[in-house]
Amino acid sequence: INKQFRYVSLLIHPDKVPEAYRERSQTAFQVLTAAKNEIVNQEKKDHFAEILSEARNKVIVDKEAEHTKKPKLELEGSLGLIAPSRDYTKDADWDLKTKAAVKDIIIAKEWAKRQALKKTIRR
Questions:
Q1: What's the CA gap between 97 and 101, in Å, rounded?
Q2: Cβ contacts of residue 36 below 8 Å, gap of 6+?
Q3: Stretch 89-94: mean pLDDT, rounded?
Q4: I need a labelling partner for 96 at 20 to 30 A (CA). Which of 19, 24, 56, 87 fits?
Q5: Per-residue model confidence as pLDDT tens digits over 107-120
Q6: What are the CB-based long-range contacts (under 8 Å, 24+) for 16-19?
Q7: What is the mean pLDDT of the chain?
Q8: DSSP string, 2-46
Q9: How remote is the C-alpha of 77 from its chain's centroid?
Q10: Which pLDDT score is estimated for 82?
């Protein structure tokens, strides 16, 4: 993470870019620094790893249901107990589907958190 951060930060650092791009560069550098600090934080790292694992499992269930023609509900309960019929990570759409699943999970968790906060405020 640190190696990649250094590489990207040298590309967008405000002191290293032409004057015309300096303002945008400062914003980009701040976003990059904030992202690095979140990723380096072990608690956040574990949280994101959990979400990624959940998303991968969701994509595997979807693909396994599609491949074996079994209902998703039947597969969801036994996902940890059975091995998928093939390696879906090599599929062309694996990354796109996993990213979409991560997005869906994060949105669902944020929605649930906001709904719980609304209930707390109403009381």
A1: 6
A2: 1, 5
A3: 87
A4: 24
A5: 999 999 999 999 99
A6: none
A7: 86
A8: HHHHHHHHHHH-TTTS-GGGHHHHHHHHHHHHHHHHHHHSHHHHH
A9: 23
A10: 56
CA dihedral 98, 104, 107, 113 (to 10 degrees): -100
pLDDT band for position 78 (cuts 50, 70, 90): low
What token pair was written down for 72?
């998703």
User: How far, in Å, are 13, 14, 23 from residue 18 at the CA level?
Assistant: 10, 8, 10
**CA 97 – CA 43 distance, rounded (Å):** 25
Q: State the residue for tokens 């396994």.
A: 64
